[in-house]
Amino acid sequence: APAGPLAGRHVLITSGPTHEPIDPVRYIANRSSGKQGHAIAAAAARAGAQVTLVSGPVNLPDPQGVAVRHVETAREMLAAVEAALPADAAIFAAAVADWRTASEADEKMKKDGKAIPALALAENPDILATVAHLSNRRPRLVVGFAAETQDVVAYAQAKRARKGCDWIVANDVSRRSGIEGGVMGGDENAVHLITAEGVEHWPRASKADVAGRLVARVAAALGPMEAAS
Ligand code: PMT
């Protein structure tokens, strides 16, 4: 049996972007690389957890010792997350597209030199809010991320309340973050951990170090496993 502070726990993590198809060759996406979410999955596995990682399209290897579910769209990500429950803790690091196209064209849209097409959008399900509001299978600890470009902590606090999660990890994804390659895509992050107790400002560190620190906090919050009776 695995040893470590998360031994016996199931931890569910989302990572990466989603791709929302426009037609067979085009999609809507964002700059998430999956580095932060995958680092959290690797750290949780090293801490002894059984880990399910639901990942959008990324150019990263599957982390060792982790069960990876590969998905493309937000709706597929939601289905994979629901199928992976129950979990003791769930950490939502994916950059899920808020909107998808209202319909997907069956054939490649042709440039005909006349009208420029307009994309009609539809709202995607909110995976974090859906899981946080579950009445029966809600993980004990639900952790969201907040990617903001201004008023990072204030917006993230509002997001924590609105989405109903326990903690929010807020990060600044603007060009002002000063992080090489940006927080989205780069190798470092500087986050604010927002809980019911308040806000902690964690110094800039590698995504692996942020992941290790977060996983240690998750293990402390879940506490030791109850002895089998
Ligand atoms: O992947 P990297 O390049 O390493 O970059 C890391 C990161 C910047 C993507 C990551 O640290 C991060 O901030 N992830 C959340 C990105 C995001 O989409 O944040 P948001 O503020 O839009 O969403 C808030 C929360 O709701 C997130 O936990 C998100 O996963 C979740 N969400 C959002 C929309 C949606 N339809 N479903 C969701 O579950």
From TrEMBL:
Positions annotated to bind CTP: 98, 108, 125-128, 145, 159, 163
Domain DNA/pantothenate metabolism flavoprotein C-terminal: 6-220
EC number: 4.1.1.36, 6.3.2.5
Transmembrane portions of the chain: none
Pathway assigned in UniProt: Cofactor biosynthesis; coenzyme A biosynthesis; CoA from (R)-pantothenate: step 2/5; Cofactor biosynthesis; coenzyme A biosynthesis; CoA from (R)-pantothenate: step 3/5
Record note on cofactor: Binds 1 FMN per subunit.
Stated name of the protein: Coenzyme A biosynthesis bifunctional protein CoaBC
Keyword hit for Lyase: yes
